[in-house]
Amino acid sequence: MNSKRILGIFTLITVLMLPMSAIANGLPSFVDLAKNCGPAVVNINTVKTVEVNGNPMQDLFQFHGDNRGGNSPFEEFFKQFDDRFKGNNGPKHKQKQGSLGSGFIISADGYIVTNNHVVASADEIKVKLRNDGRDYPAKLIGLDKETDLALLKIEPGKKLPFLTFADSEKSQVGEWVLAIGNPFGLGHTITQGIISAKGRIIGAGPFDNFIQTDASINPGNSGGPLIDMNGQVVGINTAIVASGQGIGFAIPSNMAKNVITQLKNDHKVSRGWLGVSIQDADENTAKALGLPGKTGALVSSVTAGDPAAKGGMKVGDVILEIDGSKIDNTNDLLRTVAALLPGKTIVAQVWRKGATQNLTITLGERAGKTVVSAEKFAPKTKDETIDQLGIVVRVIDRDAEAKTLDLDKPKGLLVLEVKQGTPAENAAIAVGDVILEANQHPVNTLAQLRKIIDTEGKERGLVMLLIKRQGGNIFRTIELDKQK
Fold it and tell me: Which residues does the UniProt record annotate as the domain PDZ (predicted)?
């Protein structure tokens, strides 16, 4: 054995014999951070009335009220008894049910941030402070379901420690963070990790933009803060992947600041509204539109009388910027517009027929919108096959049918059949779709559609269709079979 190898083995043995503190030297200490930030984090207990089956055995093996609230670490053990008696349902009766969560103080006079799902529908909300261990009744100031945020207020009769918000846009993947909360009702608990990713979309709502972290988050952590190394709140812990480990999600502080400010001042949240339907522009659609890249939000419909229509926006426009903020996709547009107040005048940069244009639009206020479902129609007479696409279509020429399909008048071509293995099937064209435009030209006859396919379609190798589906407009880009 040569001397270099002996030296290498000796070095390895020496490292393995070092105390853990020496190996860990250089890693951050969270002691001061925990001491300084911990007192501003609170436990939240709620009680609400629910209707349950009157099975006495179920009641026997369930936790109610107090500080456990049905989220005890022993819940799974007792759940087996609950499951055994579910089939033996007695008469329904109302019952008090407890739940728990976390929150954090944002001002010395007792304003507290938490999640909407922690306090929604609660008959009673109590906040426990860490410093004095007392429960204080909390007043609900406001809720926002779309971002899952809520604001509470307590009257402690003294100044309280509080946390401030960080600029979440400046946070970076890989930064250390601390999560503080009340997991499983165990009380004040601190876990550490890093920011694993930003801008996560998990299907929780229209404004998804979550921070992902591997700091341990569990039921009961909801509403608690995710704290950076400066002791500021970079996110509000909200969701977990139940079957995963080290995968938690937090609402970014910049989104929360805007919502919380409105809840405090107005007790509600107002959001900007354009009045358009949008979709992402895929690679083929971008090519069809002559876009330099796959970017922006493609406008598939513009609601008459809404702000976008009044500002001159048209179907087929691609929104690239709002007041100078780049729009990469539909989620960007939703978040950007919703963060602006109704009545604000903005400049929207759009891509229209090969060039950019600036549109001046005064935003309306976002409200719930309903979508009308359209019926699917079986093939009838006067139908013809468009071989290049692989579809069977028919002209819509009756007022009653147009109304059923949510059209303002008879127009377009109704898709009656989509043949297997064809370009139309590959582009997800469906029976019941109404083709309104091809390559941004209206198509109300079969001859018009065929002409566009035979000219622009052959030249570009694809055709972009504007389709009305279930009350809304969408674009579908079809790559043409070169043999046809």
Answer: 259-329, 371-470
